[in-house]
Amino acid sequence: MQNLKIALTKGRLEKKAVALFEEAGYDCTSLHDPGRKLLLDIDCPAGDAPAMSAVLAKAPDVITYVERGVCDLGIVGKDTIMELGTSFYEVLDLGFGKCRFVLAAQPETEFNASYKTRVIGTKYPEVTRAFFAKKGMEVDIVKIEGSVELAPLLGLADGIVDIVETGTTLKENGLVIKEEVAPVSARLIVNLASMKMKKRELLALIEKLQTLLQEKD
Ligand code: PRP
Fold first, then answer.
1. Smallest CA separation from ligand 1 atom 16, residue
2. pLDDT band at 86; cut points 50, 70, 90
3. Could you tell me the distance, in angstroms and rounded to a whole number, from the CA of residue 164 to the centre of ligand 1?
4. Is 163 in the pocket of ligand 1 (CB under 6 A)?
5. What span, in angstroms and rounded, lies between the C-alpha atoms of 180 and 16?
């Protein structure tokens, strides 16, 4: 079997992705203590799934590496996929990293097409644009890089489109959910050409992960 190169999203999704590969029989020792090494080998001692080299990357870079074909596959959140691109196969919903995109604001703020143009702060301008376009509402979108909940508190925006996991950040800042936008979870994505060139290896891995996920259901 040919080796595969996989891009894993650093941070929140990282531990759960590593746990999933360990359940699938991979020796992920290198990922537990990577030091400053960036390309890490993970082997499957049983030999029934392809050996892989893994890179840990920021979510948007996972998409870039898979779209450009320097990685055969990747694990990334549906949030980043919705924002950045679709030039790859999205093959599995991995069921972890569950959260939701929501429209949130201070309790008294109304969002109605008949009101004046609302200002929305977000890290996800494309998701926000698509959400309000579907509602037929014109909005002014302000891109923010982090701590988006500050935007309504500072008077920069009327509301935010952001990710909610536990709801703690909204609650502690006096914001409430006005509307659900979309559910989010981690996805396995595959480069279009790799799916043809390394079909046997990719299918072996996908089927193994799929079986594990079904057992968890
Ligand atoms: C995310 C998101 C919210 C928070 C939601 O931010 O943008 O701010 O988590 O989580 P909760 O519902 O469990 O409180 P993140 O921690 O990734 O950092 P950031 O605010 O710097 O973008």
1. 147
2. confident
3. 7
4. yes
5. 25
Any atom of ligand 1 within 6 Å of the Cβ of 168: yes
63 close to ligand 1 (CB < 6 Angstrom)? no
CB-ligand 1 contact for 167 (6 Å cutoff): yes
Q: How far is CA 139 from CA 113, 120, 127, in A?
A: 10, 7, 13
CB of 162 within 6 A of ligand 1: the answer is yes
Ligand 1 site, residue 173, Cβ cutoff 6 A: no
pTM over 0.85: yes
Q: What does the pLDDT read at residue 113? A: 64
Question: Which residues lie across from 123 on neighbouring strands?
Answer: none
Per residue, the 3-state secondary structure of the chain, as one string, reads: CCCEEEEEECCCCHHHHHHHHHHCCCECHHHHCCCCCCEEEEECCCCCCCCEEEEEECHHHHHHHHHHCCCCEEEEEHHHHHHHCCCCEEEEECCCCCEEEEEEECCCCCCCCCCCCEEEEECCHHHHHHHHHHHCCCEEEEECCCCCCHHHHHCCCCEEEEEECCCHHHHHCCCEEEEEEEEECEEEEECHHHHHHCHHHHHHHHHHHHHHHHHHC
Nearest C-alpha to atom 17 of ligand 1 is from which residue?
Answer: 146
**What's the gap in Å between 105 CA and the centre of ligand 1?**
15
Q: How much of the chain, in percent, has pLDDT values that exceed 70?
A: 99
